[in-house]
Specification:
Two copies of one chain form a homodimer. By secondary structure, chain A is an alpha/beta fold. Chain A has seven helices and five strands, in the order βαβαβαβααβαα. In chain A, α1 crosses α6.
Chain lengths: 233, 233
């Protein structure tokens, strides 16, 4: 990884949750030569430690800028990630779309990234969606990403003026093991990241939620040491 | 207009800015028999009187519920509607996309309406975009609305389970005169609405911005009295 980005580097907006996947995406975009404008979204998630993790990751991986946008979709409820009355499941992945699904989250996150991209005059947005080792969320599928790119190319002033916006989802076909292998090669310190859906204030993971299970299995399958800090460990 | 909505009425989310167009859309949806869940968005607009207007309009037109979602896209800048350093133009409509354009605004508003629709289990979203007497914004065109509907039908849990979401834009082909005629027929009190991009705290209009011009010309072309309260009038 280079330590500085060329002044002529194309700008990209990177959706950065603070988790393992989006940290890897940031490292990939950086390696590809983009100046990385990282956007995190405070949408009322209970696991707020991921926002602190996003700050650490953006700094460690040389983001050109990092912003946090606040939006109160938690008021709509409907997800165990935002509703204090709904428990995060810990019994392992089940068939169907889990209760941790946040209605329209990726649509909203991508819409916000599009707004910032338009103001920055950036032509690239990166998102860490993955359709292999994932929780079955509808808005992580390749067809969804393509549909958002199609929408973006009708939605903006730049599009009317003839510019193309590309939505990059470099993890979409990777297994979790491939993701951690890629990030490790690019120098990502996964000890800075927080994936757990119910991480405590210090960012320590529960080890039992779907996000913890997928993450742990990824490190194991890749044959890499898992730097995650677990509660009680 | 009926005074009450049947318990069996299908639910619809109505994007309600507090202006003339979205008030008309609400009246249309109500007449079509929908239970109307109105969503206004505080996105940092300087003309905050429109949010007060939205409260009045939702009440007057019998909304089942009215929510205001707050989101800080104003931090990205780039629009005279959100940036204190940019003046709202008052010299009349000019060619091209004006500086009042808010980057990705309708993409974000529709994404938020999709989130609420999903939680409500609603299959309908109404938006007051119009591509006739409008300011040339890219995200008011029919192709944009269609692209969002396509996206929505890939993005949600309901879509995966086979339900269709429809995005209704009943004003899209209407002139401003036709819009005010329609709303007047349906009993909309346009004196409650605020369209002006620089309305004062009491909701009084400047009479010179693009929104004021389009609105005034609409009433004149329809041969209807203009109930707008102008400053200094």
């Amino acid at each position: 990884m280079t330590d500085s980005v060329s002044p002529a580097a194309p700008k990209a907006v990177i959706l950065l949750s603070g988790g393992l996947d989006s940290a890897t995406v940031l490292a990939i975009a950086r390696e590809q030569g983009y100046a990385c404008y990282c956007l995190s979204v405070d949408y009322g998630q209970k696991h707020r430690a991921e926002l602190d993790a996003a700050v650490r990751v953006a700094k460690a991986l040389g983001a050109a800028e990092h912003r946090v946008a606040k939006i109160d979709i938690g008021q709509f409820g409907g997800s165990a990630l935002t509703d204090p009355g709904l428990e995060v499941p810990t019994e392992g992945l089940q068939p169907g779309i889990p209760i941790t699904y946040v209605p329209a989250r990726n649509t909203i996150l991508l819409a916000l990234s599009l707004a910032w991209a338009e103001v920055l005059d950036a032509r690239h947005v990166f998102v860490g969606v993955n359709a292999v080792d994932y929780s079955g969320y509808p808005d992580c599928r390749p067809a969804f990403v393509q549909a958002f790119e199609d929408l973006a190319n009708l939605a903006t002033k730049a599009a009317v003026e003839g510019a193309r916006l590309s939505v990059h989802a470099p993890l979409i076909d990777l297994s979790k093991a491939d993701i951690v292998r890629t990030g490790t090669r690019l120098g990502v310190d996964y000890g800075l990241t927080v994936s757990c859906y119910q991480a405590d204030d210090q960012g320590r993971a529960c080890s039992a939620c779907d996000a913890c299970r997928l993450r742990r299995e990824g490190f194991a399958a890749a044959g890499l040491a898992d730097p995650t800090r677990y509660r009680g460990a």
